[in-house]
Write a structure and sequence with these properties.
This protein is an alpha+beta fold and about 210 residues long. Helix content is about 40%, strand content about 20%. The strands form 2 sheets. It has a 5-stranded mixed sheet. Strands 1-2 form a two-stranded antiparallel sheet. Helix 5 (about 90-100) crosses helix 6 and helix 6 runs parallel beside helix 7 (about 175-180).
Length: about 210
């Protein structure tokens, strides 16, 4: 029995035995966005020491949640990625993100990472509330970065970036957080503007559990 184990016959305790160490769940969060180089992980986790990151990655590899892979040319670089077992963390991360949203301080423009706003907040809420009839493809142009979010049958899926989005959101990542916390789209303009299909927008409004005002 590992020294870090809670030694309890409980699924929650068993999960924490694997991902409960400091930084581990955030490393999995970063890898949930896709394969990452070691330097990418360092950039996405300000404050973590290189040796601690290496230690956590080794532990995740030993537990079968993370593996290293070499990207094909022209990238030709070694990255860390979630295994099939590791990808089981996705719904857990979305639930944690939705749970933590009310505890966040008021967002400030320029201080929120676009992919955190899109995947870690909006995607988390939509995936929890969207019904099986919801199909939405959205592009977010936020703070000079572009993110895609797609729901198929109410589930977050790998987006088809070559297809035309149903909705395009333009503005700041902080405004997306405010939207998730119940702000009216009209009040967020011009910091967040949405264009696209009217029916898709109506579906989006219905699918946000905090209720985006019409």
């Amino acid at each position: 029995m590992s020294n870090k184990s809670y030694d309890q016959y409980c699924g929650i305790a068993a999960a924490l035995d694997v991902v409960g160490d400091r930084w581990t769940i955030l490393i999995l969060r970063e890898l949930s966005f896709g394969p990452q180089r070691f330097t990418d992980l360092r950039a996405g986790l300000p404050g973590i020491a290189s040796n601690l990151l290496s230690e956590r990655l080794r532990s995740l590899e030993e537990d079968g949640l993370v593996h290293q892979q070499e990207l094909p040319a022209p990238a030709a670089r070694m990255v860390y990625a979630l295994t099939a077992e590791g990808r089981r963390i996705h719904p857990v991360l979305r639930s944690l993100a939705a749970f933590g949203l009310p505890f966040l301080d008021e967002p400030v423009d320029g201080r929120v990472r676009p992919r955190m706003a899109v995947f870690g907040s909006l995607g988390a809420l939509l995936s929890q509330n969207a019904g099986p009839e919801v199909d939405l493809r959205m592009r977010f142009d936020l703070d000079g970065d572009t993110c895609w979010l797609e729901l198929r049958h109410g589930e977050v899926v790998r987006p088809d970036k070559d297809a035309v989005p149903d909705l395009v959101f333009s503005g700041t990542a902080a405004a997306v957080i405010q939207l998730c916390r119940g702000a009216d789209l009209a009040d967020l303009a011009p910091r967040l503007v949405v264009t696209g299909d009217a029916a898709a927008l109506a579906t989006f409004r219905r699918s946000l559990p905090v209720g985006v005002p019409a």
